[in-house]
Design brief:
Distance between the termini: 20 Å
Strand content: 15-25%
Shape: elongated
Number of strands: 7
Helix content: 40-55%
Structural class: alpha+beta
Radius of gyration: 31 Å
C-alpha cells in the first residue's frame, strides 16, 4: 500500500484515498481520468487539512480553550479565520459591503422597459387600431379619443396599460425589439401597439436585495482563503509514482 500524499505529520494512503472517493462521490463531471483524480485529490487535501487544523485549535490558540466547551470547533475555526483574514468582528458589515462593491456586477437586474401598451380586443383589427393610434396618440387626450373611437357602447375593446416591465412580466413582448419607439405586435392573438419610452439596462441590484447571496459568497470566500492559507502553512507533498499508478488504473 503506497502513500499518495503527506503534509505535516499526516499521510493519505492510496487505499484510504479510494475509500474517500467512494464515500465522497465525484466533485467534477469529466471523462478525463487525470482531471478527475486531480480534483478528488484537491477535495481530499482540503478536507484533511481543515480536519487537522481543527484538531489543533486548542494547542495553537490556548487563550480560547475555555470557549471550546461552548462552541463547536468548526464555528470557532471560522471565527478565528474571519478575524485573521478580515480583521473585523462578525457584526461589522464593512467588509461585507466592500465585498458587495467589488462583486456587484455579478448581481444585475433584468433589462426592463417603460412603456404604454394598446391592445384592441378585436381579431383582425390591426388597421383600425393603427389608424386610431396615428390620428390621436399625439393629442393631449389621445387615449380618451382612441377609446371613444374603438370601444363599443356596451364593451371596452381598447385596453391601455402603462408601466415598467421585465421580459418575465410580459413574455408576450419578447417578439419585439426592445428599443425606444413604437412597435406593432400581437398579444394573445389581438393586435397591439407598444410605445417604449425608456429602456432600462441591467444594473447592479441594491445591497439590501442581494445581501443573503452576498453573505453566502462572502463566507465561502473567507473559507477558501483560509484553506489556501492553511495549505501554505502545511505544504502537501504528493508521491507522483503512486499518483500515476492511480491514474493508469482509471485510463
Amino acid at each position: 500500500e503506497g502513500t499518495l500524499y503527506r503534509f505535516a505529520d499526516q499521510q493519505m494512503s492510496n487505499n484510504a484515498f479510494a475509500t474517500f472517493v467512494k464515500n465522497r462521490g465525484p466533485v467534477i463531471k469529466t471523462d478525463e481520468p487525470d482531471l478527475f483524480v486531480d480534483a478528488m485529490i484537491k477535495a481530499s487535501t482540503d478536507e484533511r487539512i481543515l480536519m487537522y487544523e481543527d484538531s489543533r485549535l486548542e494547542e495553537k490558540y490556548p487563550e480560547i480553550t475555555d470557549l471550546v466547551n461552548d462552541f463547536s470547533d468548526d464555528i470557532l475555526a471560522f471565527e478565528i479565520s474571519e478575524l485573521k483574514m478580515w480583521g473585523q468582528r462578525e457584526s461589522d458589515t464593512t467588509g461585507l459591503e466592500e465585498f458587495y462593491e467589488a462583486n456587484k456586477n455579478d448581481y444585475l437586474s433584468a433589462q426592463s422597459i417603460n412603456a404604454k401598451i394598446y391592445t384592441y380586443l378585436v381579431r383582425g383589427g390591426d388597421k383600425a387600431l393603427s389608424k386610431a393610434y396615428n390620428k390621436y396618440s399625439r393629442k393631449a387626450d389621445g387615449d380618451k379619443l382612441m377609446g371613444n373611437k374603438l370601444n363599443s357602447k356596451n364593451d371596452t375593446l381598447l385596453i391601455i396599460e402603462q408601466g415598467t416591465w421585465e421580459l418575465a412580466d410580459k413574455p408576450e413582448l419578447g417578439g419585439i425589439n426592445w428599443e425606444r419607439g413604437t412597435k406593432k405586435t400581437t398579444i394573445n392573438g389581438y393586435p397591439s401597439i407598444v410605445r417604449i419610452t425608456e429602456v432600462n439596462r441591467p444594473r447592479p441590484l441594491p445591497f439590501a436585495d442581494v445581501r443573503e447571496l452576498i453573505l453566502e459568497r462572502f463566507i465561502q470566500t473567507i473559507g477558501n482563503r483560509w484553506v489556501e492559507q492553511l495549505k501554505a502553512d502545511y505544504p502537501v507533498k504528493v508521491d507522483n509514482s503512486v499518483l500515476e499508478n492511480i491514474k493508469n488504473e482509471l485510463r
